[in-house]
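User: Before I run my own analysis I want an independent prediction to cross-check against. Here's the chain; please return only the structure tokens and, at the end, one sentence I can use as a sanity check.
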Amino acid sequence: MVDTINTAVRLMCKAHPHGRLGMADDMGMTIDQFHNHLYRKCGSRFFSMDELQQMEDISGSTYLAEYFANRKGLTLVDISSVQHVDKVDLFDIEMQSNAAAGELAIAKREAAADGIIDKKELKTLTGLFHQKMRHQMHGFFGFLALYGVGVSDHNVDLFMVNRKAEVAGMQIQATEV
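Assistant: Structure tokens:
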């Protein structure tokens, strides 16, 4: 889960084929300039929104969008790739959804083994839950596309809200669909 803007930048650099050095070069900066912006050193400002978007485009990732979605308690779903789906694609999407559900189930068992879910386990479980939901919604939109219903047709209303709650002294976020 991308929970800080610095994490988003770090992951975008990691997604770049040449890492942080390549990202700095593609941004027209030296590695020192890049680090000064990232860590706000030597009186440097943090990256501008245009620079952050450029990094996301260069890296071919969605980490910046994920950061902003997580910041507001939202979940990103890739619907652009389901416009022209066939049954084989839909099967692959469903397999990804099933794998994500399995990862979540395993993590839940491991987290509950000692009878307490700590903050690290909660962060892991929340990330896996969001991943499962993204795959599941992606599969649903793929199914609709397969049978001629486009997301732009507005025939599907989907409303997803994250609610904060406190359980056993820990603040958690619950997702309602």
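Sanity check: The first strand starts at residue 161 and ends at 167.
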